[in-house]
Structures are given as structure tokens and as C-alpha cells.
Design a protein that fits this description.
Length: about 575
């Protein structure tokens, strides 16, 4: 945290100085008040004759001090928040920057909900903690120590009385803090739980309604909420008990001061004004201690949050960037090829999983070739495609693009070569136009329209109220599955690339639209290497070669005609689908 603190230390120091000013004013006031009472009103040192002029000048002095103290307080607040907000701002940016470098396994490990909570709520907690720390530490220590010091200066007996009470006051405070301390991390965990349920349920509201799970989810949320309240109440009860005890202790101190004071006043050892001042200092002392308790609570919360933020800040990118920029002459190859993919005995398991998803894949895909990948769900098609832009690293063998291992590429250079339409279409809540131009910012309207035309998306886009400017609702909720797929495809087609991957991207299209799409694609991008993952024979039959995956192994590879002759699995799929269509 020091790394962030030191950048804004100047603000913190200025804030501290203003705080010193504010507290000094608070500490000086009771002394002036006692002078007004003793010399101005009672005329203790003047045979009982008051001094109206003194009352006026001291009164004015007090007003000036109050104004000055208030000003210091306001400026302290400004600088305290400048410290906290700036630090929070930098942390948020750093976290976001780090999250952007996260590999997919890292994302999976943290979880979206947790990342959002950390970057928003936790950083706000840290921010508050810093503000309160800068403000509170100086205020409480100065107020506590200052009150005791000034009391001793006024009358050392009063000072001693307060000093005697201090162990009791501190004892109560420590007792309550020890009781509450174990509850605070629990509170944080329960708050997390609520955030998690909220995020999941709001994002999944359609499924909840479709499955009539509202009551169950309401109960689940209610339980998490009740748990939180229970813990919160326990904390509140502890502190609710603490306040009256502290007040009682303070009142005992006041009574003792009054008793001792009355004896001293009749003995001529002290004055009523000094007694008044002593009582004010006692109150200030107690306020200082109560503030310390508050501060302690917030510091505990702040530190817990800081640890969660730190986990993001300390995460190092897991995929080590290579040095090859994809532009310099390709090593060991005279001719510059673009879009050649070689799987050399590639095996793959997801990080943290024992299941080998891909086993000994050997496959060379030539530039400009169209390769289709088929196989049952869960056989590893998406995994295979994810290796090409290096979303994950292979666990065995090697994957080369244009003759260079993907791990040797700079990630940016590698991903520039690849355009991918993911299995689950991800759209952003910006106009359709911007969604399409996501991979090529600044693309002209003609380019966008031409990409949409290849993706067979023009008709439906033009039928929307705003055409290409129609905003897409959050996560594409305003579009049908097939429409979303076509926008994703337009996006992939528009992005300049040497390799184009469609991961089950045409599954929601009817056969005719799909056929038109592939035809237009071949005509528009003859030199681009195309990998088409699909379930339907109709989607893959025109590909140059078809790879049949079965349980992570490459079972067969060849053209439609070849596979029909040689592959039992392909024949089975063919007959099940074509037979089904005939019957239909
Ligand atoms: N992030 C992940 N972590 C661990 N296992 C995964 C992950 N994603 C998919 N799997 C598993 O890997 C296997 C292959 O998945 P996938 O490549 O998505 O199949 P598909 O052929 O349907 O595209 C499946 O058994 C799936 O359960
Ligand atoms: Mg898949």
C-alpha cells in the first residue's frame, strides 16, 4: 500500500497539518471558556467583580478560533479525500489493467462476481480506510493525549482523576474489540455471499423465471441476508453495550471532578471555570477514544479488503509473452506463408483438471484451406480452437502458426492473425455497427455493410428501427440467438486476419442461410484459413477437409466423400442426420 501512499503523501501530510490545526483549536477552547467564566463573569481574581470587556474580547477570540478550526477541518477533509480518492483511482486502474492481462484459467479461478466486487466495493473500503486512517489517527491521538495534557496543566488533581479512570475506559474498549474482532471478517464473507447471489440471480433472471425458481432463490437470498443481519446485530450489540458503559464511566469521572472541585473551590485551590474546562476535556477525551473504536472497525474492514485487492494486483500474467512479432521473416522458411497451422502431437488438459481433453493431435492446416471440425458435445472442439489464439497453452506437443510455436509469439501479434466467432456470442451494449467493428475500430460503413452481407445479417439489421445504429441491449438480450451469431460472424469477418475460426457459430441459422453464408465467405476470403466447428453435416460437407474428433482423439480426417467411405463415426452421423431430415 505504501507504493500508492507515497505518491499522494504530500496530500496526506497537508491533511495532517490541517488536522493538527483543527484539534489545537478544540483543545484551546475550554481554557478560554474557563477564563471567561472565572475572570469575565465571576471575577474570581477581582473580588467578585466581573469584566464585560474581557468577556467580549475572549468571546471574539473564541469565535475566530472556531472559524479557523472549522476551516482547518474542512480543508483537512478535502485533502484527506484527495489522498483516498486518488489512491483508490490508481488501484482501480491497476486492477483493471491486471485483469486485462489475466489468462482464461486466472479468470476462471477468481470468478467474474468476485472480480467485480473487489474492484468496486473492496477498493472503496480501502479508500475509506485510508481517509479515516489519515484523519482518525491524528485526531484521536492528539485529542486523547492533548486532553490529558491540558487537564494536568489546568489542575493536576483533575488530571490524576482522569488518569485513574483511563484503565477502566480502555479496558472496556479492548474487551469489546476483542469480542467483535472475530466477527468482522465473517461479516465481510457474508457480504460477499450476498453480492454473489445477487449477481448470479440478476444475470440469470430469465432462467429463474423459466424454471419457476423465484421462491427458492428468494429463500436463498433471504437466508444469506439473515445470516448477515445476525452477525451485524451481534457486532452492534457489543458496541451498543460499550457506549453506555463508556458514558457511565465518563459521568463518574465528571462527578468525581465536581466533588473534588467543590472541595478545592471552597479551599480556594481552584475555580469554577477550571472545573468546567476539566469536564469539557473529559468529554473530548472520551470522544477521542470512541473514535478510536470506530477507526479500529474500519481499519479491520479496510485491511480485509486490501488483501482481496492485493490478490488481483499481485497476480502475474500466466501466459509468458514471446518475442516474435509475427512480422519479421519467418524462420527456417524461405517463403512467407500466412495462416498455416500445425498441431504436432498436441495434448491438452484444462489447468487444474485431470481430464485430458485433447490427445495426440497431429494436423497440418494449409493457408487458405477450409477445415471443419465435427464431434459430439464435450469432445474437445472448443478446446482445440482455443489453443490457436493461445487462450490456453498446450500441455503436450507443439502448436505452430506459420512455422513458429504460438508460445514464441507476442500475444498481440498472434491474436492479430486470428479472428474468432465464439460459441457463445458475446455482444457489447453499443450500437450494432460498433459491435461489428469491434475488431477493426474505424472501419468504414461500406466495410461494415460488406461484412454483414457475408454474414447474411443485412436483412435483419435493416429491419431494426435504427439499422446499423440500433443499440444492442446488455449482453445482446434484444436479439435472437441467430441474429447474435450473425453479428459475431460479421465481427470476425471484418477483422483483418489470416485465420478465421467459427466455433459452432452458425448453429442457430437455417440451412439455406448457412449455405449462403459459407458461399459468400469462400468468395470473399479465399486466402484466409478457415476453421469451422459445427454439428451438422450440412455445415461441414463443403469444407476441404473434415476432422472428426472423438473423446479428444482425431479419429478421421478427409473430405466429405472420403469420410463417407472410410469413417464409421462420420457415416453414423451422416445417416442419423440425413435420415432424420428425410423423415422430417
Ligand atoms: N474451463 C474449463 N475447465 C475445465 N474443463 C473444461 C473447461 N471447459 C470445458 N471443459 C471440459 O473439457 C471438455 C471439452 O470441452 P469443449 O472443448 O468445450 O467441448 P466441445 O467439443 O463441446 O466444444 C468437456 O468435457 C468439458 O467439460
Ligand atoms: Mg464447443
Amino acid at each position: 500500500m505504501w507504493k500508492y501512499m507515497k505518491r499522494y503523501l504530500h496530500f496526506a501530510v497537508i491533511a495532517a497539518l490541517f488536522m493538527v490545526g483543527e484539534v489545537m483549536m478544540d483543545l484551546i477552547q475550554p481554557g478560554l471558556m474557563s477564563e471567561i467564566v472565572d475572570d469575565g463573569v465571576l471575577g474570581v481574581n477581582n473580588g467578585g467583580v466581573g469584566n464585560a470587556h474581557l468577556i467580549l474580547t475572549l468571546g471574539l477570540e473564541m469565535v475566530v478560533l472556531v472559524i479557523f478550526g472549522g476551516l482547518c477541518g474542512s480543508l483537512n477533509n478535502v485533502f484527506v479525500h484527495m489522498t483516498g480518492q486518488n489512491i483508490g483511482n490508481e488501484m482501480r486502474k491497476d486492477c483493471f489493467r491486471n485483469i486485462m492481462t489475466f489468462s482464461f484459467p486466472q479468470m476462471d479461478r477468481f470468478g467474474t462476481g468476485s472480480l467485480v466486487t473487489r474492484v468496486t466495493n473492496d477498493i472503496t473500503q480501502v479508500q475509506n480506510f485510508i481517509s479515516q486512517f489519515v484523519r482518525g489517527m491524528i485526531r484521536t491521538s492528539m485529542l486523547t493525549l492533548g486532553s490529558i495534557y491540558f487537564m494536568f496543566r489546568l489542575n493536576h488533581r483533575f488530571g490524576l482523576i482522569v488518569l485513574c479512570a483511563l484503565p477502566f475506559i480502555m479496558g472496556t474498549m479492548i474487551f469489546c474489540m476483542v469480542k467483535a474482532y472475530p466477527l468482522l471478517p465473517k461479516l465481510q464473507a457474508q457480504l460477499d455471499q450476498i453480492n454473489e447471489i445477487m449477481q448470479e440471480d440478476i444475470a440469470g433472471i430469465r432462467i429463474i423465471k423459466a424454471c419457476v425458481r423465484e421462491i427458492y432463490e428468494k429463500l436463498r437470498f433471504g437466508k444469506a441476508n439473515d445470516d448477515l443481519i445476525k452477525t451485524q446485530l451481534r457486532v452492534l450489540v457489543i458496541f451498543a453495550f460499550m457506549n453506555p458503559v463508556m458514558n457511565m464511566l465518563m459521568n463518574i469521572v465528571v462527578v468525581v471532578i465536581l466533588l473534588a472541585g467543590s472541595v478545592q473551590v471552597s479551599g480556594g485551590l481552584t475555580t469554577p471555570g477550571i472545573i468546567m474546562a476539566a469536564i469539557t476535556y473529559t468529554t473530548q477525551l472520551l470522544n477521542g477514544i470512541l473514535m478510536l473504536v470506530m477507526l479500529f472497525q474500519n481499519i479491520t474492514k479496510g485491511i480485509a479488503s486490501w488483501h482481496r485487492v492485493k490478490e488481483i494486483l499481485d497476480s502475474k500474467p500466466e501466459l509468458v509473452d514471446g518475442s516474435y512479432d509475427g512480422e519479421t521473416e519467418i524462420r527456417g522458411d524461405d517463403k512467407v506463408v500466412r495462416g498455416k497451422i500445425e498441431f504436432r502431437d498436441v495434448s491438452f488438459a484444462f489447468p487444474g483438471s485431470s481430464q485430458t481433453v485433447l490427445k495426440h493431435i497431429n494436423l497440418t492446416i494449409n493457408p487458405g484451406e477450409t477445415i471443419a471440425v465435427m464431434g459430439a458435445t464435450g469432445c474437445g472442439k472448443t478446446a482445440l480452437a482455443s489453443l490457436i489464439p493461445r487462450f490456453y497453452d498446450v500441455t503436450g506437443g507443439q502448436l505452430l502458426i506459420d512455422g513458429v510455436d504460438v508460445r514464441e509469439y507476442k500475444q498481440k501479434a498472434l491474436r492479430k492473425k486470428v479472428a474468432i466467432a465464439l460459441q457463445k456470442s458475446e455482444l457489447f451494449s453499443v450500437p450494432i455497427k460498433e459491435n461489428i467493428a469491434w475488431g477493426k475500430p474505424g472501419a468504414s460503413d461500406e466495410e461494415i455493410a460488406s461484412a454483414a452481407s457475408i454474414a447474411q445479417a443485412v436483412d435483419f439489421i435493416q429491419s431494426t428501427p435504427g439499422g446499423y445504429d440500433t443499440p444492442v441491449a446488455e449482453r445482446g438480450m434484444s436479439l435472437s440467438g441467430g441474429q447474435k451469431q450473425r453479428i459475431s460472424i460479421s465481427r470476425a469477418v471484418l477483422k483483418p486476419s489470416e485465420i478465421l475460426i467459427f466455433d459452432d457459430s452458425t448453429s442457430a441459422l437455417d440451412l439455406k442461410t448457412e449455405a449462403n453464408l459459407y458461399e459468400a465467405l469462400s468468395a470473399a476470403k479465399p486466402d484466409t484459413t478457415k476453421i469451422i466447428i459445427a454439428q451438422r453435416i450440412a455445415s461441414v460437407r463443403r469444407a476441404d477437409r473434415i476432422v472428426v474428433l472423438n473423446g479428444g482423439r482425431m479419429e478421421a480426417c478427409g473430405s466429405h466423400a472420403e469420410l463417407l467411405r472410410s469413417s464409421k463415426t462420420y457415416q453414423d452421423i451422416y445417416h442419423s442426420q440425413i435420415g432424420g431430415e428425410d423423415n422430417g
